[in-house]
Fold this sequence. Notes:
Shape: globular
CATH topology of the largest domain: Immunoglobulin-like
Structural class: alpha+beta
Strand order of the largest sheet: 2-11-9-5-6-10
Largest sheet: 6 strands, mixed
Oligomer: single chain
Order of helices and strands: HEEEEEEEEEEHE
Strand content: 35-45%
Number of domains: 2
Low-confidence stretches: 3-26
CATH architecture of the largest domain: Sandwich
Mean pLDDT: 84
Amino acid sequence: MPVNIAYRMIVAVGMCVVGAVALAQGDRDLTIAPGRPPRQAALNVSLTPTTAQVLTIGSPIGFSLGATAKGYANLYALSASGKVQLWLENVPIKAGRALSYPSAGVIRATPPSGDEQILLVVTREPFDGFGHGAVRSPLVLQYTHAEFRQAVAAKVDRLPRGNWALTELIIRVEDR
Length: 176
């Protein structure tokens, strides 16, 4: 390579470095960052019963909760009796690591017979939910099923797209 061309290449590289330093020092209003911003891992969730999906009254109920990104687990039960219960709220969950519910003790299927709708909402940041902080034991919420679903929808709609995920599972309770 002729000396003149090599010299021009060195000068061009040097000017790029000087330009980058000037941008870093705020000498310009606009900056162009190389590459794309880092992408967040997709947030997908799973809710799997650790017991049968059809239970008799008195049988224990348990679940395995999962997420593909770290976040906060929020678990709710809409019972056949019409009640809405908060079972977990703002409990940290790690990516790819199952969280068991209940973690201690036993929850049993209670009358009346019918479908128990279980909702899992995982958020990337703590959830402005219904229990005011981290909750690990059941609380009865004063909502009808329809009112609760509307309240959850209103809360997650305020979150940035991709910062939450929801799944639902139905457990049938029978009186045999």
